[in-house]
């Protein structure tokens, strides 16, 4: 269920944003999406910093609520608000035209015009739309009375038409291209989420070592400290755990650096030719950054390397999504984005299952595994040649 809630709405939002902006601002729109994600991560860590250390406990009937449950409720509010705002989004005119629904596409354009110009829909200067796709007849039965067999036949026809629209996904040139992108995003998300979800434990262990006056805070020392921790002797009846505010400070710094990093990349994209090679450059740099975590000997070094790595990988993720929007045509764009996000989530799950196994082998094994994943992602990026300035299909 969480997989559907993450992949579905995100793909719809990305498709709408890119289709409503020209090629001049397309790269900046994708970077702005990444900037919004980084801003959300910063706000999330700040809320955790102020809320989670506070002791909150109350009962509603037979239900017991604690601080962490209040935190989960607060983090669910943005998703609920986003889903509500989706109601007010206009349908994609490009998608409607590709299916032959020119009347609906014209109404959608009139609605967009009225929202942007604050004028009447009737004042929209364009009165008719036309394209290579023939007009679809939407009045199958003017009386509105259809038998069950007719409704089933109509639904079956629409299903077959939908499959035919996806047929180009499994033929040249989109099959090989999408396969490379799926593999790249799978390896990338497996690696970056392994680091991102591992960081809170690393920072909490660093804070524990600082409290006990331990000088060696290298990655091997952190892993060794976690491996020596025995299982909890007693289980609490209630899950009422509170962390010290200082343990969240490093997470706030990482999120803040990520936000600043996106602001730095905005002017860089104005340089001619950079946008078409930014994915290769970023993945190449991140391959060395993730390996550099193994050689980090101080908490400050770990913090800097991890922050730079997550920031640049965030730019890579935005670039891949933008690349798919440009390459794939309108009829399959949202489906491809859904598959990309699905492969990313599968990579995240696989990474969280495999990383503990490598940690148990030896100190350098997890870092060698992460470098291997980044190397595959970089090699895949070498075979992706996309012009971000090309018009949408």
From TrEMBL:
Region of interest (Disordered), ranges: 126-146
Compartment annotation: Membrane
Residue stretches spanning the membrane: 27-50, 70-89, 252-271, 278-296, 302-328, 335-358, 364-384
Biased composition (Basic and acidic residues): 133-146
Key words of the record: Membrane, Transmembrane, Transmembrane helix, Transport
Protein's UniProt keywords contain Repeat: no
Main location: membrane
Molecular function via GO: transmembrane transporter activity
Membrane topology value: Multi-pass membrane protein
InterPro entries tied to this protein: MFS_sugar_transport-like, MFS_trans_sf
Superkingdom to which the source organism belongs: Eukaryota
One cellular-component annotation, GO: membrane
Family, similarity comment: Belongs to the major facilitator superfamily.
PANTHER family, A to Z: EG:BACR7A4.13 PROTEIN-RELATED, SYNAPTIC VESICLE GLYCOPROTEIN 2
Full protein name: Synaptic vesicle glycoprotein 2B isoform X3
Source organism of the structure: Drosophila albomicans
Upper taxonomic lineage: Eukaryota, Metazoa, Ecdysozoa, Arthropoda, Hexapoda
